[in-house]
Amino acid sequence: MKLVYGPVPSWRLGRSLGVDPLGGTCKRCSFDCVYCQLGPTPQGPVLRGTWADPAVLADELWEARDVAADYVTFSGMGESTLATNLDALIRMVRKFRDTPVAILTNASLLSDKSIHSTLNLVDYVILKLDAANDETLLSVNRPRTPCTAAEIMEGIRSFRETFAGRVALQMMFLAANVAQAEPLAALARSLRPDEVQLNTPLRPSPTPPLSSEKMAEIARVFEGLPIRQVYAVPKATVVALDPAATRLRRPEAEAVPARDGG
Length: 262
Hints:
Elements: E1 4-10, E2 14-19, H1 54-63, E3 71-74, H2 86-96, E4 101-105, H3 113-119, E5 124-128, H4 134-141, H5 149-162, E6 166-172, H6 181-191, E7 195-199, H7 212-221, E8 227-229, H8 243-249
Parallel strand pairs: 2-3, 3-4, 4-5, 5-6, 6-7, 7-8
Antiparallel strand pairs: 1-2
Helix pairs in contact: 1-2
């Protein structure tokens, strides 16, 4: 399969049937995060474009029609909102399935209000937020398109005010941004998400994960917010429809969690 993969056992979404709006041939992203499981973002301009054919998606959704899933999730090999035909792909999923639709995005393009309209077609939007200032944004997320932490925050805030569905903030913690826990918690309180997802790189990554003890400390900083913490959530058991397509986007082996409290 070219576009549909999984289902995968998601700690956030249960059984998640993935749809890659970026075509599944190479990484396409507006960030070059130090922890990305897909490796570096290729050099060259980062432009929006069309890579996934809705007709191909229709055929693959039909093939996967009997696959049980809690969500159909737009994700894959980079930043989903780079796809200019994302709205057509979402409508195609709606045509074939009654399953709730989610999307993972790094929020870097939310200054474009047309993307707000597209995201309004889904039920659940999961927004990345790893940095409360430009220094951390540049060192951890390494934007490939011009943006500042303040612009990302304003985009999230503006989108949150108009979106009627469910919104989560996903925060990836590692040694480079662990000191950001308190300012990120303050931002989360101001943005009023339905959930805050506290993550650390447990899949193969250039960056080691924080320990379960350290993540528990970070979770306490977010006390009073609706949090989900990666070490504290059991994963669903699933069988992938196309294991090769799934491994392309989700490497199988998990990293060994650190145990030194770091």
